[in-house]
């Protein structure tokens, strides 16, 4: 009989085909037009987990289904809860994709498609590791529960409810989340902190309709001009956010973090070139890693208003708006920051226009203990699966639901990312490296073994 590792090594190509099958499903959670595709993806995963040997239940929600699966045959052993999300970001702008976002394509050792790295490829690695055990040894080294949601990219509203109403079902000794990245190709990372987020939209309204900018311009405040002026005051000349009290609760970096991060192989100039910018920019007094991982930010995600088509059109637009997100770090509170932001915008807005603000979503930052037995098991799994020891880092993205899991289930969490920083998450030409996919499956298998105490 084969070992799980032999099984993984000899089934690699099929695993990639199965990933491709899932990537063909257009599970965009934010846009109601894709609703059926999101449901179809849940169905695919449900059947897939059943074939692997799990007992599976799909829970309908107000929005997108939650797929729960369990295998609880390891009596007396710990239980691992593995979280992932099968929803993806919209593929736009389509014209910048070299191949269709939902036509998975292999090229230069990667698989290209929306969701390849965020997060279908990453959670599938765990499913395939479980399969390797069940199809060889006939059992897993630990009890395993999968919880896969379709709303991560829209704030995990349904799962937050679900965790509270299904506490016993989800009870576990460790939570495993693979929805982040390695530090760089070949240097896997255990992540102990993520940023939180507050997302809001600001709209200013002026005249009751678009006006001829010759006929009326100059006699009325232009909402686009006004909005631009408000936005231009969000940062001071030191790159600091001007929202009053914004930095009050920010936990300063610990000495060991500053030291450990400056020892990481990170080159600011290479980073500049990777981003394709003329110069790096950010809050004065901090390195790029510190700015990305440990400092809060305010960014305009999108801005609109007036004529956006070909050529020129001489109008004063009747309104203009911007989508804003702030990234929060420990110990900032999303409620408090959201309120301060709103007051700040009100104070900056002149009385010539009408201001409207909506809060999209908010979630607190996450700071996990940076050591412990589960961390050790994860480090050892990476060492065996990837052939190198992982580094311990923070990351700048947000996975809001992890906080709910940790606080509500009182469970230690491991953030074990398999992607790469250049995977183009949320961007055109998202990809996952195929060798990493394979190593991730191995690492997951070693992790299950390690958690089982073997
Ligand atoms: N997987 C990402 C979060 C992430 C990205 C963590 C990079 C670590 C490194 C996740 O799918 C994501 O994009 N989250 C959103 C959450 C938001 C929509 C509430 C984010 O960070 O913008
Ligand atoms: Mn993700
Ligand atoms: Mn994402």
TrEMBL record:
A Pfam short name: Peptidase_M20
Residues in coiled coil: none
Name of protein: Peptidase M20 dimerisation domain-containing protein
Annotated Peptidase M20 dimerisation domain residues: 192-351
Source organism, top-level taxon: Bacteria
UniProt keyword Metal-binding present: yes
Organism in which the protein naturally occurs: candidate division TA06 bacterium DG_24
UniProt xrefs under SUPFAM superfamilies: Zn-dependent exopeptidases (SSF53187)
Molecular-function GO terms, alphabetical: metal ion binding; peptidase activity
BP GO annotations: proteolysis
Alphabetized UniProt keyword annotations: Hydrolase, Metal-binding, Protease
Presence of the UniProt keyword Repeat in the record: no
Cited Gene3D superfamilies: 3.30.70.360, Zn peptidases
């Amino acid at each position: 009989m084969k070992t799980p590792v032999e099984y993984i090594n000899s089934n690699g190509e099929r695993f990639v085909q199965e990933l491709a099958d899932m990537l063909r499903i257009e599970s965009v959670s934010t846009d109601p037009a894709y609703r059926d595709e999101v449901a179809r993806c849940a169905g695919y995963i449900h059947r897939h987990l059943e074939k692997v040997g799990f007992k599976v239940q799909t829970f309908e929600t107000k929005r997108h289904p939650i797929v729960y699966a369990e295998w609880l045959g390891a009596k007396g052993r710990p239980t691992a809860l593995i979280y992932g999300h099968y929803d993806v970001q919209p593929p736009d702008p389509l014209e910048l994709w070299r191949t269709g976002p939902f036509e998975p394509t292999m090229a230069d050792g990667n698989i290209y498609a929306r969701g390849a790295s965020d997060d279908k490829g990453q959670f599938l690695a765990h499913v395939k590791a479980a399969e390797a055990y069940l199809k060889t040894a006939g059992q897993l080294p630990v009890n395993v529960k999968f919880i896969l949601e379709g709303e991560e990219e829209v704030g995990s509203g349904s799962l937050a409810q679900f965790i509270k109403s299904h506490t016993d079902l989800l009870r576990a000794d460790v939570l495993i989340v693979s929805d982040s990245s390695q530090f760089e190709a070949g240097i896997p990372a255990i992540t102990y902190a993520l940023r939180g987020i507050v997302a809001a939209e600001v709209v200013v309204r002026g005249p009751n309709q678009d006006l001829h900018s010759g006929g009326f311009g100059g006699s009325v405040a232009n909402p686009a001009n006004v909005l631009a002026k408000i936005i231009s005051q969000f940062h001071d000349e030191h790159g600091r956010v001007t929202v009053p009290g914004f930095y009050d609760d920010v936990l300063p970096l610990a000495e060991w973090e500053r030291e450990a991060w400056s020892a990481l192989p990170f080159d600011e100039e290479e980073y500049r070139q990777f981003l394709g910018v003329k110069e790096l920019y950010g809050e004065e007094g901090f390195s790029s890693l510190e700015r990305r991982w440990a400092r809060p930010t305010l960014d305009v995600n999108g801005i609109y208003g007036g004529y956006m088509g070909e050529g020129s059109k001489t109008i004063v637009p009747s309104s203009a708006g911007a989508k804003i997100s702030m990234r929060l770090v420990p110990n900032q509170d999303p409620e408090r920051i959201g309120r301060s932001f709103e007051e700040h915008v009100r104070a900056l807005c002149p009385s010539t226009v009408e201001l409207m603000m909506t809060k999209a979503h908010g979630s607190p930052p996450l700071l996990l203990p940076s050591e412990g037995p589960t961390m050790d098991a994860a480090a050892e799994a990476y060492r065996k699966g990837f052939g190198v020891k992982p580094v311990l880092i923070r990351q700048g993205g947000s996975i809001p639901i992890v906080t709910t899991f940790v606080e509500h289930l009182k469970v230690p969490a491991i953030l074990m990312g398999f992607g790469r920083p250049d995977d183009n998450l949320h961007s055109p030409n998202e990809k996952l490296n195929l060798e990493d996919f394979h190593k991730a499956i191995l690492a997951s298998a070693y992790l299950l073994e390690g958690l089982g105490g073997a």
